Amino acid sequence: MGFVTGLCYLVALTLVGVYALFKVKFRYWKKRGIPHFEPRIPYGTLFRNGNKEQHITENLTEIYEAFKGKTPFAGAYFFTQALPIAVDLDFIQYVLVKDFKLFNDRGIYYNPKYDPLSLNMFNVKGNHWKRLRTKLTPTFTSGKMKFMYPTIVEVATRFDQTLSEAVRMGSVIEIKELLARFTTDVIGTCAFGIECNSLKDPNAEFRRMGRKFFAEPPLRTFGRTLVNQFPKLSIELGIKTTSTEVSSFFMGIVKETLEYREKNNIRRDDFMDLLIQLKRSSTADNEFSVVDVAAQAFLFFLAGFETSSTTMTFALYELALDTEIQDKARNEINEVLKKHNGKFTYEAMMDMKYLDCIINETLRKHPPVVVLMRVAEEDYPVPGTDKIVEKGQRIFIPAYSIHHDPDIYPNPEVFDPSRFEPEEIKKRHPMSFLGFGDGPRNCIGARFGQMQTRIGLVTLLRSYRFTPCNKTLIPMKYSRVFVLSPEGGMYLNVEKIN
């Protein structure tokens, strides 16, 4: 047998083996009597209709709508990996809240040796997560928020000036990038005590690193697939989810800030100061190292600038499409400011109840994190059923799909802030809104994010009117990135109000 013939036989045998492996793996849910769509090789349940451009929100909503009311969870496959998709709100409450101790891990890849910034509170699990959560919770009290408030308002004033200059140059503005520059400067000041100057310079280092992290080049997309399928092998291979450039930049910034503050005995009531105090008080049994400081500061930066800017982007989009709601929000802002003698104080911000409804309705319709994940610590019999989630399985909780369920939110594609008036909230299941997650592992920075978003929207709505332009995405189309985002940016017509 010649070399070429032998090679052909080897390739054929390999393909047959791979095919057989998929067929065996794809029997998993059928053997357990769990309802599911038939998977396709190689993608599994994802893109099962052959549409690779389909967004994950569409995939998960199709599963959710097909199987809700019939089972606590449906079956799905990510390539060969079997995934339970939660489709019952009571089951979700067990996972996130009532039996949280059995589901405290998100199942997100992190690499202690090769990717130090991945050791942040969002990713880590078990005692490591619990220790970080306990230590960092004091940063986000209402008292701390009130202290940071003037700093954010000061950045918002610069934001207003930047937008005003942009409007003089032309009324069509790409608002998403401008909002990201605003939140980048806020986080840089509140977390690092550093003037990022993103509003003045779109290519400032902090902004450039934020863009780079959320970019999705093909190699990084492949890397994410690899770490999801083979996490242990990925750790041994040194696979990183943070680029070397981004990691080096943030490690360098944190080390410089630590050295400068410790050398000059500088105290600031900000996020970095708390991390420094934790590092100083750490012991051999309860260590908090420079890497820990950098990883948590990195998380605060990423979560703080991206989710808030995205929420404001979608809020302005919806208000541009419905000027009646926009005018009502602006009227509330003006009335509350008049009540507070024209001053935009912390108390004035907290009085703007309709604005809160707008923010929550934005998070319902366009949740930045479309799916929550939890891993079973042991075999888990679902209460009241004969179904079992097996140890190590990663449960997907489709927040976007729940938020768009017409049985929970009638006419879910309609933007209606009145859904979040207190009496309406009481009518719904506690798990029907997951804009900040829920349970002990919910978003620790929710208060900060809400405050930053309120300040940004008040600054804009009191001085500008937003309407669609010929470049506005109608209907909305999402890009394929980790945090929900409009494809190609967000262009709106912006008019200065005299």
Automatic annotation (TrEMBL):
One of its GO terms (cellular component) is endoplasmic reticulum membrane. This is Cytochrome P450. It comes from Hermetia illucens (Black soldier fly). It comes from the Eukaryota. It is found in: Endoplasmic reticulum membrane; Microsome membrane. The keyword Membrane applies. Heme binds at residue 443. PANTHER family: CYTOCHROME P450 (PTHR24292), CYTOCHROME P450 6BS1 (PTHR24292:SF103). Keywords: Endoplasmic reticulum, Heme, Iron, Membrane, Metal-binding, Microsome, Monooxygenase, Oxidoreductase. InterPro entries: Cyt_P450, Cyt_P450_CS, Cyt_P450_E_grp-I, Cyt_P450_sf, Insect_CytP450_Detox. One of its GO terms (molecular function) is iron ion binding. It is a peripheral membrane protein. Pfam families: p450. Its cofactor is heme. Gene3D superfamilies: Cytochrome P450 (1.10.630.10). Belongs to the cytochrome P450 family.
